[in-house]
Specification:
Elements: H1 3-8, E1 13-14, H2 18-35, H3 42-52, E2 55-56, E3 61-62, E4 67-68, E5 74-76, E6 81-82, E7 87-89, E8 94-96, E9 101-102, E10 107-109, E11 111-112, H4 117-121, E12 124-127, E13 130-132, E14 137-138, E15 143-144, E16 149-150, E17 154-156, E18 161-162, E19 170-173, E20 178-182
Parallel strand pairs: 2-5, 3-6, 4-7, 5-8, 6-9, 7-10, 8-13, 9-14, 10-15, 13-16, 14-17, 15-18, 17-19
Antiparallel strand pairs: 1-12, 11-12, 19-20
C-alpha cells in the first residue's frame, strides 16, 4: 500500500510522504484564496467553500484565519458557520450536520501520533473520522479529538476538550469534557445516517 492508501484506510502512515503532503499544500493554497475574498461577500465565500469542501449545504461561511489539512475531507450541512481562526485538521473525514456553529480558535483534529518516540521520529501519524450532528454549538477555544462522535443539539462550553462520544441533547464542558446537563430539543429532525464509504450523510 502507498502511504496515502494507508492513511485513507485508517492505518499508520508517513506524514512526510510527498503524496500525503500534497494534500496539505493544496489546502494551504485554497485557504489563502478564501482569505482574500471580501468578508462582506458571503455569496463568494459560500461558492468557494462549496467548491473546496468535499460537500456543503446552503450558505457555508468561515471567518478569517480558517485553516485545514485537506478540505475535501470536510463535509458540512446547511448554514455552517466557523468563526475566526477555526482549524479543522481533516486528514480523515469530518462530517458536520445542519445549523452548526463553531466558536473562534477551536480545533477539530482527526490526526494523532504514536506514544513511541521512534515512530514519531519516523513521521508516523494515524487518523480517525469525526462526526458532528445537527444543531451543534461548539464554543470558543474548544478541542475535538480524533474519532469522536457528537450527537444532535449539543452545546460544548468554551474551552472544553472533547475526548469521547457525546450523546444528543446536552451541554458538555471541562477537560476532559463531560455532560453538565440535558437540554430540550425543540426541532423535528430526520435521523442522520453517516456513510464512511461515500463521504456523505
Amino acid at each position: 500500500m502507498t502511504e496515502l492508501e494507508k492513511l485513507d484506510a485508517g492505518l499508520e502512515y508517513d506524514f512526510w510522504n510527498d503524496e500525503v503532503d500534497a494534500r496539505k499544500q493544496y489546502a494551504i493554497e485554497w485557504c489563502e484564496k478564501i482569505h482574500k475574498i471580501d468578508q462582506k461577500d458571503g455569496d463568494a465565500i459560500a461558492a468557494a467553500l462549496t467548491e473546496f469542501f468535499g460537500s456543503a449545504g446552503e450558505l457555508p461561511w468561515v471567518g478569517p484565519g480558517f485553516q485545514c489539512d485537506c478540505g475535501k475531507n470536510i463535509h458540512v450541512g446547511k448554514h455552517f458557520i466557523a468563526n475566526f481562526n477555526v482549524t479543522i485538521l481533516d486528514i480523515a473525514p469530518v462530517y458536520i450536520g445542519d445549523h452548526c456553529m463553531i466558536g473562534p480558535n477551536t480545533l477539530i483534529c482527526t490526526v494523532n501520533h504514536p506514544l513511541s518516540p521512534m515512530k514519531r521520529r519516523n513521521h508516523i501519524g494515524i487518523a480517525k473520522p469525526i462526526h458532528i450532528g445537527d444543531d451543534v454549538w461548539i464554543g470558543g477555544n474548544c478541542t475535538i479529538l480524533p474519532g469522536v462522535t457528537i450527537g444532535n443539539n449539543v452545546v460544548i462550553a468554551a474551552g472544553a476538550v472533547v475526548t469521547k462520544d457525546i450523546p444528543d441533547n446536552c451541554v458538555v464542558g471541562g477537560v476532559p469534557a463531560s455532560v453538565i446537563k440535558s437540554i430540550e430539543d425543540d426541532v423535528e429532525r430526520e435521523t442522520i445516517v453517516f456513510s464512511t464509504s461515500s463521504g456523505q450523510k
